[in-house]
Specification:
The protein is mainly alpha-helical and 174 residues long. The chain folds into 2 domains: 3-81; 102-172, Arc Repressor Mutant, subunit A (Orthogonal Bundle). 74% of the residues lie in helices and 0% in strands. The protein has 8 helices and no strands. The protein has helices at residues 3-16, 20-30, 36-54, 60-81, 102-121, 124-135, 140-147, 151-172. α3 (36-54) packs across α4 (60-81) and α5 crosses α8. The longest helix is centred in the middle third of the chain and has 22 residues, at 60-81. The protein is globular.
């Protein structure tokens, strides 16, 4: 085992595992079913380890519980958007063909190209923060920790970047 892995294992054993029982208790109350608790626990640990590899963590317990809260929300969101009609009961004859036409495909490609150009034209820090937030799905807090900036700065840069991208796409749409 490498030195880095040994350090990570030691950190996990000393800083994270002591909170497992209280985290499990929280997840039992917040999860949809008791069967989900282990999955949510592992998902929370994985997300925490990703943050740990990016930046130092000041309060492991508070971040762990915030991550677990987000994991529960994500699980609920996935469950509510999942289709509950078995595929065998769907009558394909009643479904409309929703494949996009040539014009739609060309428009989508043009919009994507404009957006990619708009993102490329952003100042470096603004582009980095916008991509971490909108593409990689990191929270403002995670981005702030990763880049060593305040959450207000993250919020400002995301807002500025999104506004500049929107303006660029609107100006060049025709």
């Amino acid at each position: 085992m490498s030195r880095e892995n040994l350090d990570r294992a030691r950190w996990f054993a000393e800083e994270v595992q002591p909170h497992e029982s209280s985290l499990r208790a929280y997840l039992h109350g917040a999860a949809h079913s008791p069967a989900d608790v282990d999955d949510l626990l592992q998902d929370s640990y994985l997300r925490l380890l990703r943050v740990y590899t990016q930046a130092p963590i000041r309060s492991v317990k508070s971040l762990l519980f915030a991550i677990a809260r987000n994991a529960v929300r994500d699980a609920i969101r996935r469950r509510t958007t999942a289709c509950e009609i078995p595929l065998s009961e769907i009558n394909s004859a009643h479904m409309m063909d929703q494949t996009p036409g040539v014009v739609e495909l060309v428009n989508h490609r043009h919009e994507h190209a404009l957006l990619a150009e708009a993102i490329r034209l952003l100042p470096q820090r603004c582009r980095e923060v916008l991509l971490l937030r909108k593409i990689h799905g990191l929270s403002q807090k995670e981005i702030a920790l990763k880049l060593g900036i305040t959450e207000n700065t993250v919020e400002s840069l995301v807002s500025k970047g999104a506004r500049r991208c929107t303006d660029h796409v609107r100006r060049h749409r025709e």
